[in-house]
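Write out the bound-state structure for magnesium ion.
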Amino acid sequence: MAFVVKKFGGSSVATPEKIYHLVDRVLGEKKPDDKIVIVVSAMGDTTDDLLTLAGRITDHMPKREMDMLLSTGEQISIALLASAFMERGQKAISFTGFQAGIRTNANHTKAGIMEVKADRVMKALDEGNVVIVAGFQGITDEGDITTLGRGGSDTTAVAVAAGLKADICEIYTDVDGVYTADPRVVPNAIKLKEITFGEMLELARLGAGVMQPRAVEYGELTGTDIHVRSTFNRVEGTIIRGEYTMMEEKKFIIRGVASDSNVAKITVRGVPDVPGVAYRIFNGLAQENIAVDMIVQSTSAVKEKNDIVFTVTKTDMADTVGVLEQLKNEIGFARVDVEANVAKVSIVGAGMLGNPGVAARMFGALASENINLDVISTSEITISCLIAKEDEKKAVNVVHRFFFPNEEK
Ligand code: ASP
Ligand code: MG
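---
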């Protein structure tokens, strides 16, 4: 008997035909005593359409009401999907996040899952149902509906799999696994058979769009294996798990190249060189929930002044400048410069630990194409370089070629 949670995105349920296609595939692979839970997103572009609709009422929709609105998308798809299973003669039942016992904090529009009380789902499975759970939504202790941030159905699926202690969580997407680079950018990218949670989390965080980083985090936290695979075929995809089980990882020093152009570079110039200043700047940003990355401080040309450089997502750029302008007089820095035409190219892999020369190889690759490096930052298993946005595609390709040379055609 297999016990599987399968997550399908909005494009897999965009039309009634696609819904039946999904149902027939699931039933075609299901053995009689398999336990199957399906987590599903809203149909097609429903969530975007709801956002547009909200924008026609107000630019400042209260987040609680936004969640009330956005969560309706998934409620449509679960009812249709459950009914399609029944139409094919398979017992099925749909549950909202609330009914599936998905308890979250009250951080509306990007709520975190606190716990999954899956008793009702388990009971329905034991009664022979295929259980359909609405992705992307949960319920607070007060009984308010929350949503988990864009792409949040991935996180629902992993959390439900963990709550049920299912064998595996399968994420069905339009790519058939995790690649060493985005195959649309690097045609020769290689599909990985497996990758660890830690490496996948870094890749997702640094721009690989395959999965919501939160979902990977949840998998790591609960030890739930995740199988990323294709909606269109039955080929084995990539398994994200705690440890490698095959020898594949020995072949390459790094596991992937990622890039992200949703970044902006912020330079705070002429910051007084006294204790507590960095604290005041970054605490101010933290208060506004702005995540910063790539922090570098360097001595300025002016005596006893520093320049502090960091990156934020482009979406947080305006808020960041707002916070800094408020601090300007209090701290007494000279000015803030903003550069939005940048991209961050990163390599990820636990193999770089204890492997000298990995950074040099990356810089050599970029130099060979005459790409200028701006900020550089590293962690245990990542190296990131900020470059001009126009060089992004070239950079990803040359770095990939330097690290995966034999695999290229
Ligand atoms: N429907 C939500 C979104 O579009 C959640 C998801 O697709 O995972 O972001
Ligand atoms: Mg979606």
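---
The CA atoms of residues 344 and 386 lie 4 Å apart.
Residues 9-10, 41-42, 47, 73, 135-136, 150-153 surround aspartic acid (ligand 1) (CB under 6 Å).
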